[in-house]
Amino acid sequence: MRISRSTSPRIGRRELLLGMSSLSALFCVQATRAATLSGGALRSGVVHQKFMSVSSLLVPHKLNETIGIRTADAMIATVPDFPEHLEQLASFIEAKKPADVEELMEALPDVSLKNAAQSIIESWYTGAVQGASTISVISYEEALMFKVTSDVMTIPSYAISGPNGWTADAPPLSQLPIF
Amino acid sequence: MVNETKYDVVVVGTGVVGCLIAEQALDAGLSVLMLEAGPKVDRQTIVENFRNLPPSLRHHWDAPFPPPPWAPVLETRTPGEENAYLDLTGPNATAYQQGYVRYAGGATWHWAGICWRMTPEDLKLKSLYGVGRDWAFDYETLEPYYARAEYALGVCGPTDAALQWPPKTPRSRPYPMGPLPLGPGEQRFTDVMAPLGLQNLPAPQARNSGVSYDGRPACCGNNNCFPVCPIAAKYDAATALPRIEAKGGKLLTNAVAYRIEADDRHKIQAVHYYDPHRTSHRVTGRAFVIACNGIETPKLLLLSKDDRHPNGIANSSDQVGRNMMDQPKLKATVEMSEPLWTGVGPVQGSSILNTSQGDFRSEYAGAMFRMENMARGSIGAAEALKKGLYGRALDQEIRRLSACTGLLVVEHEPLPSSINRLTLSDKKDWLGLNRPRIYYDVGDYVRRSAEQYTIPTLKKMAAALGATKFDLNPEFLHSDHIMGGCIMGKDPSDSVVDVDCRSHDHENLFLPGGAAMTTGGSGNSTITMAALALKAADAIVAQFKTA
């Protein structure tokens, strides 16, 4: 496999294509067809609204709509059968009206829908979308995995206090932050 | 072929060693040219590169530093990629997968900033314990240079002598700044280890503590010292380069040195380098400093062989490329019922060093132990998500795994051994230059230490922490402290450089840094490299004065 690499030291913002199947690395910048990452205003379409609606049940936290739009676009572009799975999840929720994610996951009838739901949850927590052959990085500091410990643990590269402003004190493990 | 102006001092490499010497030479009124194989890249680009990585790659310290084709380094982003540059062989090849950066600033971009001095005993392994070699000078000779290096880099450290390293050893000057506070994880680790007789010391570290220093801001605990400090609170050579240029130093980036040219009288006359268009250039000077790390320096010397120097430049002893060292590292992940809470403060802020000293060193290696202080949120999340959790159970498990797990690390002191050798591979890089081939065996001294001493100690530490799980990776790993390839000694027949890191064979060639180190000790090598750099700088300046 040929190495295809820019001579620029800059890694392209948010979109990385990783060739994981050979000894060499394919590591280059790729624009997705959704082209949502140019920094312009993002507009929410029907699919995006459906994605946010499904996400709000799957992930019981405050969700950032801009990140949701970008995540949905990356999933449409890179995750096989995503639009169909999203449609099925939305229909199931509409019909069964589960009270929370626990009830929904218990009730989902097949593995592929459970996996689709799990991959949506994972994208919100990691800030990245695992596609068939790509990983799309959507957000860093807004990834929900950091919120779970935001009362004590640093988001690497972001300061949590100031010069010598930290101590050995830590809050109780059981005290989950609200986010 | 293009000719450049003749400089007093030509420095190959822009890491800590090259920058310290360049600045000393400029301050003494000498003209300086620095050659750097890679590009000059701004801090924010590297920080953004890091944040834009897929989560699984954010612990690959090489990943935010994609090399240009002409300045390759070992990369680990995809399986097998680590074999594309360093040609590693031997029973512990994995333990020599050294990470470094070929950018302006060198590996200081992603060093941990830790500055343990070597001890008086570390410099006398042969006479005290009958193993390894003795250094060509004693600790008292090195001490003033350690102090200067601590001020040059801006090292913070404890004011209490009982917490300083080496123990009971006079310091000529206090640290320029007091210690950084410990977060909850390192404080708990310190408290739990003390009854075991394991003294977890606050690390001397090149991070600004509470105040700005040398034009850089105070550390704010961004917990990202490697792969890159986002605010330059940690010393990195990239912050020294603008000052060097302001003082009149000339910096040439994307200039890959590939040949050192000596004349009939073994005096070095020039360095040849390729630019990214594969065009060769020749730069001339009066003194030459090769400071492009412990792998690239011996590689360049071996690449420079000619009719008069058939084994390479500086290599009449046949010791160039031998004695390759690093501290072989073992890692153990522990899980506990009680939270540790790492991830507050710098990624490394303390270590246990009293385990590195003792008469047992006649039998097996001393070692340094520590608990990594990196935030473990992303590790906890990956594990929790793998379990298929969701809702409140997912949040609780991420929090538990982030807080109640830790990484224990032990780094063993290496012995210099002639079989651990860097040679020129028959495989070539993008420019057509031979890649480095390195044979590496950690040796029985380290293996005995792991079996009899360090692994049992790791298990005791885990038990004291209340570990419910102890997962030891039994494979020796690299610590990225590249040492030994141009070993220092008094005897030109079995060493490469003298006490000032001057080549025994070439009076105007200096090879300072990790490659010159006679032994490695258990601690991080940078402050010793920096001390040797300042000693070499003094010798260079003195040589010009007497010329």
Structure explained in plain terms:
By secondary structure, chain A is α+β, with helices and mostly antiparallel strands. Chain A has one domain. Chain A contains 6 helices and 5 strands. Chain A has a 5-stranded mixed beta sheet with strand order 1-3-2-5-4. Chain A is globular and about 55 Å long. The N and C termini of chain A lie far apart (44 Å). The relative contact order of chain A is 0.13. Chain B has 547 residues and is of the alpha/beta class. Chain B has a single domain, classed as FAD/NAD(P)-binding domain (3-Layer(bba) Sandwich), CATH 3.50.50.60. Helices cover 25% and strands 18% of the residues of chain B. Chain B is built from 11 helices and 16 strands. Chain B has helices spanning 16-27, 43-51, 125-129, 139-153, 184-193, 237-246, 293-303, 377-386, 391-403, 443-464, 526-546; strands at residues 2-12, 32-35, 87-89, 200-202, 250-252, 256-262, 268-274, 280-290, 329-336, 350-352, 367-371, 405-412, 422-428, 434-439, 467-477, 509-510. In chain B, the strands form 4 sheets. In chain B, strands 1, 2, 5, 6, 7, 8 and 16 form a 7-stranded mixed beta sheet that branches. In chain B, strands 11-12-9-15 form a 4-stranded antiparallel beta sheet. A 3-stranded mixed beta sheet of chain B has the order 3-14-13. In chain B, a hairpin with a 5-residue loop joins strand 13 (422-428) and strand 14. In chain B, helix 1 packs parallel to helix 6 (237-246), helix 4 (139-153) crosses helix 11 and helix 8 (377-386) packs across helix 9. The longest helix of chain B has 22 residues, at 443-464. The mean pLDDT of chain B is 97. Chains A and B meet through helix 4 and helix 5 of A and helix 2, helix 5, helix 8 and helix 9 of B. Chain B: This is Dehydrogenase. Chain B: Keywords: FAD, Flavoprotein, Oxidoreductase. Chain B: Residues 225-328 form the Glucose-methanol-choline oxidoreductase N-terminal domain.
